[in-house]
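Sync notes, pocket subgroup
Present: LS, DG
LS reminded everyone that the earlier model was apo-only. Rerun requested with 1-O-alpha-D-glucopyranosyl-D-fructose included. Inputs:
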Amino acid sequence: MSKVWQERVVYQIYPRSFQDTDGDGIGDIPGIILHLGDLKNLGVGILWLSPVYASPNDDNGYDISDYRSIQPEFGTMADMDRLIAEARRLDILLVMDLVINHTSDEHEWFRKSRDPHSSYRDYYIWRAGVDDGPPNNWTSFFTEKCWEFDPRSGEYYLHLFSKKQPDLNYRNPAVLNEIEEIMRFWLDKGIYGFRCDVINVIYKASLEDGERKFMLTGSEHYISRSGTHEILRRLRSDVLDHYDCFAVGETVFVTPKMARDLCGPDRRELDMVFSFEHMDTDQYFVKWFRRRFHAGRFGKVITRWQTELDWNANYLENHDQTRSVSRFGSDTAFWKESAKMLAVLLLSLRGTPFIYQGQEIGMTNFDFKTMDQIRDIESHYVYRLFRRLHMPKRICWRMIRLAGRDNARTPMQWNASENAGFSTGTPWLRVNGAAQNINFESQNMDPDSILHFYRQMIALRAQSPVLLNGSFRSIRNSRRLIAFEREWCGEKLTVLLSFSVTSQRVAGAGSVLISTAGRTEYSGVLAPYEGIILRTEMKT
Ligand code: TEU
């Protein structure tokens, strides 16, 4: 018997960029409530909100200063309660982003921890320096050092992300108790679970020097270590087991084996995890060094995860990744065709599909021209680092343009009016110029739009036991084609996905269940970037 979080499609909202209703140029909770009907029409069953808690916004809300209050620019707790209630009335369940590897340095706990004699000192990882330098040689996710010296107490504190995101110390039981109370606070409000931010790095097994690496020296001491599993089992038994809810972990550098362990036998830890391996196939060891996308490499990784894990959290983009149609499809000649084909891929894989805001209308990477249009802290860290390494400005800009997280954070394109209907004020991040042609309003009226196709694909998945429960078997992964089968109780679906700008002959039999080219019969030739699902009755 499948669970609600397996049957439903999840839609991720990056609140800052979704819909502004008070003209301050920043999306807000009333703006989300305004569009709940549109999300219901899309077929969304679960809504994942990126953080809306109080935050100084060093990392756009992933630096939390109070887990129990709402960032004023997003609205009030009354707005949040209304969102939860309105969503439930439409049978849409709400999931919050649980960022517990670190807090903001403006969180009360951290402010108090700066006093060496405070009981909060041990909430974080404070250490004396070594030889007038940091306690070890670790480097941060944002490429800079990951220890910050605090002159007041003469010690350093650890931050795997920005210096305004100090890591919590999970060797201290008081920290876990605080986190459990925060989870209960939100579950008691009626949310349906959590997306757990970088959850597999929260336990640091050692603070010893790490093996020197280009990125993340020291990560062997904290990625998916046994202490993390103990914490997750505690959260499961102390909190999650007592509510109708689920937990999906964002787990960096996770392998299928680690993922199986992190979900644990019978899901005694997380219910599912986001992997990154398929997102690494178009880069050389780090995302800033792009590699030409190859559907065969991409399909082989997806196949491995589909076959080595019982259930996957499937995604093609989010607030940290660039737009999938620009990255894996074509945002020029075959924009509509490839966006629809990627919808077939996402929604026909075995697992829970996660759609990121704007993906349903084929939003593309930003059309920015200079670094002063960039807002993401990660991009600015990286740009400064590579400039210090004397890389030419145009090379550094190209890296940010092709891999920067702001690509996915430009305001939602609601219509072709000024600021794409996102705000009557000045948007916090420039609206993509593509909004004139790529927007919700124009597609909502066009039965051949990407938006309509997403609605069709989501509805198809919802009523297909094969897509919901079926097994997965790969047929082919090549530069031009990803093909696989889903099978359940005597029914077999064949999924053929072209990644080619030319037509191609691909064998396939059966009745057409759906085709991005509107085909009703399959003649054995796929159109450019066509996605098609064929249905064959199996001889029982
Ligand atoms: O991201 C974790 C993370 O590692 C990201 O930095 C991601 O790997 C990288 O951006 C890919 O380019 C989570 C959140 O999703 C991200 O928005 C936060 O910045 C980060 O944690 C810190 O909370």
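DG: The first strand starts at residue 10 and ends at 13.
LS: The chain is about 30% helix and 20% strand.
Action: DG to write up.
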